[in-house]
Amino acid sequence: MEAPDEQTTPFSSVTAQTNKLGRQYQALLDQSTPYVLYRWIGTGVGLLIFFARVFFAQGWYIVAYALGIYLLNLFLAFLQPKFDPSNDALDNDMEDGALGSLPTKQDEEFRPFIRRLPEFKFWHSATRAVTISFLCSWFEVFNVPVFWPVLVMYWFMLFILTMRKQIQHMIKYRYVPFSIGKARYTKNNA
Question: Where does this protein reside within or beyond the cell (predicted)?
Fold first, then answer.
């Protein structure tokens, strides 16, 4: 029995269209890469629209809570270095220490801060999550009745505790994930 050709399978046209849409979507993402501020403004507007939907509909609090936890998780991954210096003590398998780790002593070589979650992937995941949450807010099955002030209190407690831990980690291993005050060079300066 011979295997059917790709052109004769019943789903070849569907696969071709899916691949075409995937390429167009990737092209849009590639074009949006340099516009960091505009991308985040768009995501912020989408988040505000979602919160307005939740506020005026008086429901879908559990969806908003899940979105908040997911965004917090993304933010923490954005703040953390790709090569965590606290794992060096656990991973002493390498002879010279972990490659790519942050310097922890004054005389160590400088290594740039590399994020565990790059900004573009952070934005893309956050935008997808906001979009999915907004879509979920139109289906009654996701409108689980909960006492929303408790969820807000839980989220703030979670945020405070995790950020406290992250800030302590940043202080202990002396790294700053932001480049505030960094000198910017233009063509005229060079």
Answer: Membrane
